[in-house]
Amino acid sequence: MSVLRGRKIYSVLAFALVVWLAPAAAQENKSAGAGQHVNPQRLRETLEKLSEFGRKPDGGVTRLGFSEADMAAREYAMGLMRAAGLTVRVDAAGNIFGHREGTEKLPVLLFGSHIDSVLHGGNFDGDVGSMGAIEVIRALNDNHVTTRHPLEVIIWTNEEGNHFGLGTFGSSAASGKFGPEVLARRGDDGLTLADWLRRYGQDPARFAEARIVPGALAGYLELHIEQGGVLDEAHIPIGVVQGIVGIKHWKCAATGFANHAGTTPMNRRQDALAAAARAALAVRDEVRAEPGRQVGTVGYMKIEPGAVNVIPGRVEFPVELRDLDPAKIERIWNRVEKRFAAIGREENVDIHCALDDSDDPASSDPEIQALIRKAAEEAGLATMDLPSGAGQDAQEVAKVAPMGMIFVPSRGGISHSPKEFSTWEDVANGAEVLYRAVLMLDQASARERPAQ
Ligand code: HGY
Ligand code: MN
Ligand code: MN
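A: This is the predicted complex of the input protein with (2S)-amino(hydroxy)ethanoic acid.
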């Protein structure tokens, strides 16, 4: 028998053995004890490398969606995806997908997060879920595990929305919330969203193709830092997210009259900054005026003309309200509007607001929550159920597929800050639970149920 024939028979036998063992391997991995399948050191190295893109001198990061730093970070992430054997594509909204074939013709099982940051933010928000998802793929490869569903790792575009004021931008294109009308928005750099999409290699005219239709996905999982202090204070390593808050943003302007700061008597002023300052405190008062976990913020003020000896004539400021209950947000906003009208009358300043962005609250799929809880238990990790006070891409994906989120602790509950920190052990625990949850979802019935 020629060597070739011998080798051929051997390779056929070897192939048969792998195919025969693969599902068992998947089963074996699924039911493995507290062993760890992901590689903590490898995951840490990718997060440390990612933190270099947009790094600030104090160690924080500014990697806004649609920025040079983000473009460089995306290239790095796509390189990791390709090195993990994924087939990479970028959709018309700039979302990056890494595809891994399954053994059956089933809807895609999607998991990932975002890598853009807020202005002067931290190195864990979004990054942990994005790098964690790619680490899961490498671990599946290491363990020679095949899945029934095709898997796709996703990195959503411009989740923070600090650029263009449109949060969860990429996932909102996927859910259909944003249509081509948003592409005309112009940033402080004078470029429109369409200009930046072209820089990302996309044709704005095809923006609608980023839509993901309900039923196209088997399910969605996102690993993320909690960004609050609940898990850290309770010393619980894994959070099972029950739901994600609704968020509403308004753009407001207080318009008074710019005048000489020395010659204008105090009782003859139309001081836009005095009115805006009172408005910011009124937001805080009205949010505090009823029990619950609602929050309200005025994140910045743009003061014109901005000179010490000129009474401010105009002040632009945002108002953000968040809660799991949209009716409560409306109720608080109605009170805030009444307060603004009274302040305007007293200060002789016009305060006008317009709704700028709105994210509906979203519930996590109960079956996927149970599956995450089980995955953590099998990994020997305690869990706690909690809501997400942070907005997430998952709340857009919830409109088209059943979703679930895995939280890991944020030290001191600090986030959107250079002081944002999660331990490498917590990060690895989260990735391990994601690994197991992906395999369990691959086997579970959840995949067949339509989006909520
Ligand atoms: O703002 C948020 O809640 C999220 O981190 N983008
Ligand atoms: Mn985030
Ligand atoms: Mn964030």
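The pocket of (2S)-amino(hydroxy)ethanoic acid (ligand 1) is lined by residues 125, 159-160, 167, 390-391 (CB under 6 Å). Residues 1-33 have pLDDT under 50 and may be disordered.
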